[in-house]
């Protein structure tokens, strides 16, 4: 193909010799990367099965057969799917000593026993294989999407080869992240295949919670009045019931953020050591606390929005007016109750303060903010203020329940109000946490976390061959 000069390199320095890079494969990714590299001043040679057919290629690039192209450069980017790698074995001689950049992804996690990059290294043992670029999509390269991730994970066994690939990454305006030897390729190849892994469990859990509490409230507030009083209360499905389900989900999820911490503490106390791994379910739970917390914050937001509209609701205005008229007709006055005023104001005040701290927790979890605070400050906000948030939100709900809390009149078909059930987990977490911070228990826990063990495996006497008492 004739070399044209339509694409002018943006960063070409006339005193520098253009570096030639070879790209194998003229598909979507090869083309996008080639165009980008041409614009950044590289000389690009494509390797293709049909050099003549490749008409869509960026102007300025040369297209040759695979073996001819390979001779033009000592860096070759393999923009081919793994399934078609076998032909590379025929080129082992020309590829000897060259840097091969594996950009490939698979369709599924664990599709093959070894990573694609390691497989490539086995096929062409004389080459230096470097894994890179697989987390950048052809689309992001083409559209120069600023919002897409600009991080490129790089790994490889030859540090010089890796360095040269990282230089290319940098010159494209992307950020290379050295992940070490080629053994890391497996992990790097899994990144683009993960679909919100840390969000899955919190997401399903909140869906289950919402569905459960929704039907629970429907039974109590729509079906029951219909069966016993023949009243149509279906309008409650729009605001009243969501404004129970959302705050209840928020409170329960918030408590579930702090529950694994107390379970972990109990396990450590029971085992008398911190040097034993937590069970997998607990580990995973601990790792997705941030996501649980953020979903909880979302529900709390909804609760606040739904609460704001209470005064403009027709049903609420109708009830107020009717009550006033009924009192006027009966010539009855309801005396002002200071205790009710106190209860009502304090539960709303605690809700507002709780919500404020909730938002603060959410803000500190933004990477730009958490990068600005040190580890102790972050723990202070997340752990101490987090517990304060839980206390305030639990108290908000307890005081809201007030005197009706467990009164038999609020039972419907023996079912207590939904918020009574919602209080079980938060209260349990707070009670256990309170026990854990009692000085005698806290002292032991702190010692365990500093490395002390109740039954040390490697005590001096055991090391000396004596039995440990
Ligand atoms: C809106 C919102 C946003 C959130 N954002 C984030 C976030 O960005 N990042 C995040 O991580 N969490 C986030 N969370 C979750 C939560 O706030 C944190 O995980 C918080 O640190 C949990 O506090 P904790 O006291 O329960 O746990 P921790 O202080 O982590 O302690 C839990 C357990 O770990 C063990 N442990 C603690 N220290 C040690 C030690 N030195 N050695 C051995 N074991 C130890 C103990 O068993 C302890 O009980 C968020 C929550 C919410 C509500
Ligand atoms: N598309 C994307 O956004 C991304 C892709 N990748 C990776 O880049 C690599 C290429 O992807 P992409 O460009 O999308 O794929 P395409 O299917 O669009 O292109 C693959 C190219 O491989 C070449 N090839 C060589 N041998 C064969 C063969 N036997 N059968 C078919 N094609 C062959 C072909 O080029 P020719 O006809 O010139 O020989 C073909 O154009 C893959 O490993 C992919 O995982 C990584 C990140 C993102
Ligand atoms: C600005 C902040 C807040 C305000 C103004 C507020 C206000 C209210 C009001 C008015 C109610 C009664 C609703 C009704 O009568 O149906 C209520 C109930 C409730 N709130 Fe809040 N709240 C706030 C924040 C929170 C937060 C952050 C949580 C928990 C995470 C929470 C949890 C609850 C719960 C569980 C209920 C009981 C739901 C029910 O069963 O009716 N609230 N809140
Ligand atoms: Fe593709």
Task: Please provide a written account of the structure.
By secondary structure, the protein is of the alpha/beta class. It folds into two domains: about 20-195, Rossmann fold; about 195-460, no CATH class. The protein is about 55% helix and about 10% strand. It is built from 19 helices and eight strands. Strands 3-2-1-4-5-6-7-8 form an eight-stranded mixed β-sheet, with helices on both faces. NADPH dihydro-nicotinamide-adenine-dinucleotide phosphate (NDP) binds near residues 30 and 81. It catalyses: 2 Cu(+) + NADP(+) + H(+) = 2 Cu(2+) + NADPH; 2 Fe(2+) + NADP(+) + H(+) = 2 Fe(3+) + NADPH.
Counted up, domains total: 2
> Which structural category do the helix and sheet elements fall into?
alpha/beta
Identify the bound ligands.
flavin-adenine dinucleotide, NADPH dihydro-nicotinamide-adenine-dinucleotide phosphate, protoporphyrin IX containing FE, fe (iii) ion
**Content of β-strand:** 5-15%
> Which H/E pattern describes the elements?
EHEEHEHEHEHEHEHHHHHHHHHHHHH
End-to-end distance: 82 Å
Q: What overall geometry do the principal axes of the alpha carbons give?
A: elongated
Question: How are the strands of the biggest sheet laid out side by side?
Answer: 3-2-1-4-5-6-7-8
Mean pLDDT score: 89
The proportion of residues forming helix, as a percent range, comes to 40-55%
Compute the number of helices: 19
DSSP, total strands? 8
Low-confidence blocks of residues: 1-15, 465-469
Largest sheet: 8 strands, mixed
Structural Rg? 32 Å
């Amino acid at each position: 193909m004739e070399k044209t000069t339509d694409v002018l390199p943006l960063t070409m320095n006339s005193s520098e010799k253009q570096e030639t890079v070879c790209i194998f494969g003229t598909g979507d990714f090869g083309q996008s990367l080639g165009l980008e590299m041409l614009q950044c001043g590289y000389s690009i040679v494509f390797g293709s099965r049909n050099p003549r057919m490749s008409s869509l290629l960026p102007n300025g690039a040369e297209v040759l057969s695979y073996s001819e192209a390979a001779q033009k450069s000592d860096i070759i980017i393999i923009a081919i799917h793994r399934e078609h790698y076998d032909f590379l074995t025929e080129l082992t001689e020309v590829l000897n000593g060259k840097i091969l950049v594996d950009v490939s992804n698979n369709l599924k996690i664990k599709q093959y026993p070894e990573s694609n990059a390691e497989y490539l290294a086995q096929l062409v043992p004389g080459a230096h294989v470097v894994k890179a670029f697989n987390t950048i999509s052809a689309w992001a390269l083409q559209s120069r999407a600023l919002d897409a991730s600009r991080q490129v994970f790089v790994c490889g066994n030859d540090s010089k080869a890796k360095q040269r690939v990282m230089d290319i990454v940098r010159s494209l305006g992307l950020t290379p992240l050295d992940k070490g030897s080629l053994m890391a390729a497996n992990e790097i190849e899994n990144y683009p295949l993960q679909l919100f892994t840390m969000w899955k469990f919190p997401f399903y859990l909140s869906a289950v919670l919402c569905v459960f509490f929704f039907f629970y409230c429907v039974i109590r507030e729509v079906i029951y009045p219909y069966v016993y009083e023949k009243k149509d209360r279906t309008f409650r499905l729009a605001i009243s019931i969501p404004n129970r389900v959302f705050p209840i989900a928020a409170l329960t999820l918030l408590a579930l953020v702090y529950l694994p911490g107390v379970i972990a503490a109990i396990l450590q106390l029971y085992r008398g050591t911190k040097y034993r791994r937590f069970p997998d379910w607990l580990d995973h739970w601990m790792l997705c606390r941030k996501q649980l917390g953020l979903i909880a914050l979302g529900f709390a937001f909804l609760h606040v929005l739904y609460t704001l509209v209470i005064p403009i609701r027709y049903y609420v205005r109708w009830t107020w007016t009717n009550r006033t008229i009924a009192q006027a007709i009966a010539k009855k006055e309801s005396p002002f109750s200071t205790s009710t005023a106190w209860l009502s104001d304090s539960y709303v005040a605690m809700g507002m303060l709780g919500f404020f701290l909730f938002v603060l927790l959410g803000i500190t979890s933004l990477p730009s903010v958490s990068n600005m605070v040190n580890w102790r400050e972050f723990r202070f906000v997340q752990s101490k203020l987090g517990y304060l948030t839980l206390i305030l939100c639990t108290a908000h709900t307890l005081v809201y329940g007030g005197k009706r809390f467990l009164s038999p009149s609020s039972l419907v078909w023996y079912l207590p109000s939904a918020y009574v059930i919602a209080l079980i987990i938060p209260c349990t977490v707070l009670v256990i946490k309170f026990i854990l911070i009692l000085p005698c228990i806290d002292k032991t826990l702190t010692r365990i976390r500093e490395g002390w063990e109740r039954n040390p495996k490697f005590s001096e006497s055991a090391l000396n061959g004596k039995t440990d008492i």
